[in-house]
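Operator note (shift B, R.M.): manual run for Glucooligosaccharide oxidase requested after the automated queue skipped it. Running by hand, logging everything below so the morning shift can see what happened. Input copied straight from the record, untouched. If output looks odd, do not overwrite the archive copy; leave it for review.
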Amino acid sequence: LSTPSSPIYNNDRLVFNHIFDHTPSAIFHPSSEADAAAAVACAAAHNVSIVPRSGGHSFEGYSGGGKTGSLVIDLNLFQQFAIDHDTAIATVGAGNRLGPLYTKLWNAGEYLVPAGSCPGVGVGGHALGGGMGMVGRKYGTLSDNIVGLTMVDANGNIWKVNATSRPDLFWALRGAGGGSFGLVTEFRIQAYKAPATVTTVLAMYPWNMLQTVTDAFGMWAENVADDFTPLMYLGRDMVVVMGTFLGSQDKAQIALASLFALTGSPLQTNFDEGTWYQAAAKWAEMEGAKLEDPFAEHARSFRLRSLLYRQAISDRELAIISKYLNNPPNNPNGRVTTTVIFEIWGGKIDNPSSTSAFDNHRGTLYSIQYGADWSLSSSGSGSICTACMDWSERFAKELQAAYSSGQGLEAYQNYMERDIPNGLRAYYGDNLSRLIKVKKSVDPGNIFMFPQAI
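Run finished. Output pasted below as returned.
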């Protein structure tokens, strides 16, 4: 337990996004479900809000409480892992980070689960909010592959939750469960034997081909093979299509041929054939970290958001993106990186084996993550680049105002934005009313609470 008077408190309260500087009343690191349940019951008895923390990567800093005075329950000691080789179901403690989890799965028999590329992200929030990742089109989201959970409720009761035991809660936790309903301490996740060969792909185009490549990417996205989960990265000087193909280099080249037929030949291509674990390690290195050591991943200062599109973006929206990427903010204290990433959905993401609170997003063509990150000098206010923040706000307002996909703005709940138009409906759509009913049934006193909790 660390409190404001503890020597470790100031370090313990830090989260991945250093522009946030919350001061929780305490941070507790339970070592067992019984310890966690006792902490929840104590906080509830004193009407203290509780925020779970698995990895601390909330875009809005909610892993640090999201406000002053909360009790943060950090699950970093819940590192348990086991796999049933008959069913390929993995038992995973909520304190596992993605990189070490990939290592454990690989060493247990060359298994994988569909999840993200950033090795320092905690499995807890990632899985509960959807869990998009490198092989989602083949295997679905991470939340779709959860077959059971252990959760401590607001009264300190420990529940085993699955499709037959508390099914409404099971539905809600998979896609909308990040911190709103209770403290999830353990997951049972369907894993898969990795294919023998995996190919990572990079195709680079000059910036003056932005319109051509973006238009082609949207058309290609509707028919791309499910073995490929590609994304398109827009930097200041380059357009890059990249991703992980589950198969040989020859088959990956065939999958990309239909894109190249629309765009013409890229400036440069790279097809790197190897194992699944090597592919995951490659993407981790691009994030500046290693799978086995996610804590080598540097904390950042950033303002990132998301939008979901059910159809290709309009020329007007692409012009807005181009304008802001061509006119980046000035950070007088160091580096600034502006980014827009398109990630193709579809495939198994649209066809899960059971319903969940993520269902309102089925049918998405691709997501867009956009914004800026910059070098930091210290945590808190010293990490705020005013020009970067202003640039990000103007970019968001203009792109959101031009949003052309459907009646209401849609966004991805694992990339929460505190002041997003359309509020929680942007994340949960028509599921919101049912989610509120589930919330009232398991946490009527609203003990599990942060600024954008259900």
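Quick read of the result: The CA atoms of residues 91 and 415 lie 26 Å apart. The domain at 198-274 is CATH 3.30.70.100 (Alpha-Beta Plaits).
Leaving this for review. - R.M.
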